[in-house]
Structure formats: structure tokens, C-alpha cells
Amino acid sequence: MTTRTVGAGHGWKWIVQGVNVGRSNPRAVYGATAIVALLALIPNVLQAIAQVAFGLDASTQVMLIGATSLVSIIVYPLLIAGVLHVIDAAEHGRPAQPTDLFAVFTGGNAGRLIGFGVLMGALYIATFYALVSAFGDGVVDWYMQVLTISQEMSAQTGPSTPPDLPLPPAGIGPLMALAIFFGVYYATVYAIGLGQVALGGRPVLQAFTDGLGGALRNVLPVVVAAAIAMAGGFALMLAFAMVVTIISVVASLVHPGLAALLVLPLYLILLLILYIVMFGAMYAMWRDVCGPQDDASTGGPTPGTGSPDNSRIEL
Question: Which positions make up the signal peptide (predicted)?
């Protein structure tokens, strides 16, 4: 058996350890996370540029989103695995630097990481198609209408009356509930399985099986972690919205463009915090469910302390 069952309290511990991750080597962990966060913004920037430059309609924009998502399925497992290696090195006191995350691109494990990402991507797409087919009658048409209206509003330059948005179809409630359920479960499978490939050296199918089993064996801590993450994320976004509103009102008295100039750094900082906590919690989850027995039994190295080890990161 390669997976373990942990108590519900570990859900809280995963979030706390996610907050504390990298304290022993903040330059490496925070730097690697910042690189991934910036790279993750590239698809959104390209989509925005394409929309402004070519005035894409709703269907073309959806196709562009789909194309960038396919690229992300291949690239993101490598980037996330690189961050996990940096975190693992920092937590065990091994030397590490931010650019060590790119070592996985040339390592012998790259093919398995890509394979795991493709497998999970196929599972996401198949599940989405099945849910929409069963419960999403009219959801796609409604989404396209909302997307078209939002594009028309963004293209307008002067003041205008907000248009009436179409009412969502009746089946969107069950669809959203099932989407959240499968989203949380698959995110857990992804965290455990990718950790197994990146740090545990497991083949793709075995890591995938470990992820499926590990997620089912640890439903309670996963639910606790998801509830805390959702509540904390909501509170954080609410506080961020309040700060942005205050800055926008004050900055608009000086110059309309000053608000965007001041808000952008805050947005990037918020994004970095979310990525740090996410990757840290992901590492803590893998370590407790599938990691080395010594680390799991002791809760791993105390975040921020590490352990003396002069070896380099072995990928």
C-alpha cells in the first residue's frame, strides 16, 4: 500500500504548512513560485492582446481559451513539479535556488510528468463533457450569450445602460454542485499523483492510482482543507476588493490611470500569496499521504527550519 489515511485535522495542518512553506529558504521557494505565477499569466495576457487587436467573437475566444488550456496541460505539470522539488529541498535543508525548477524540463522524469498531465487533462475534459451532457441543457448557449454581451460592453467607450443578462438555465445548480465536487476530488488526485511522479518516482498509471486511492482514503481532511481554503480565499478577496476600491477612489482624484498603476502590484502580490499557499499545501498533502514514512510520521521538517543536508536536488 503506497497511500496512508490521516485524520481530519490534517486538513487544517496542510493549509498552515502551506502558509509557512519556504521559511527556511524564502528566496528559492518564493522565487520559484513567482516565476510560475508570472508564466501562468502569459495565456491571459495573450488572450487579452488578441481580443483587443483582432476583436475576436465569442466562439473564437472560446477556441483560443481551449488552445491555451491544452498547452497548459503539458507545461504546468513540469512547472509545478519543479516548484515541488524546490520546496522539498528547502524543507530538508538542501541548497536550492529559484531556477532549479527548470531542471525537470531536461530530467529523465519530464515525459512521465507530461504523461500524467495529459491523463488528468483527459479526465477533466471527459468529466466536463459528461456533466454538461447530463445536467447542462442550455448552459453552453447561456454562457455564449453572456460572453458576447460582456465583449460588447468592453468595446463600448462611453457611458451606457447595462444590458439585461439572460437568466441561467434551470440545470445550472446541480451542474455547479457536481463541478465543485469533482473539482475538489480531482485537485486532490492531481496533488497526490503529481507528487508521486515528481518526488516519489512512480510511473504515471501507478501515480494516478495512488492519487485516486489517496483522495478517497482522506475525504475528511480534504473536505476540511477545501472548506478552510474557500473561506480564507473569500475573506482575502473581500479584503482585496475593499483595498482596491479605496485606492481607486483616492487615485481617481489625481489621475484616472493612477489607480491601475497602484492596483497592479497589489494584484501580483495577492496572486503570489495564493500560489505559495497552494503549492505548500499540495506538498504537505503529498508528504502526509504518500511521502517517506519518517516525514509523514513526524509531520515533516518544521517549516522554516529544514534539516542539515549538503546534497543537491536530485531530479
Answer: none
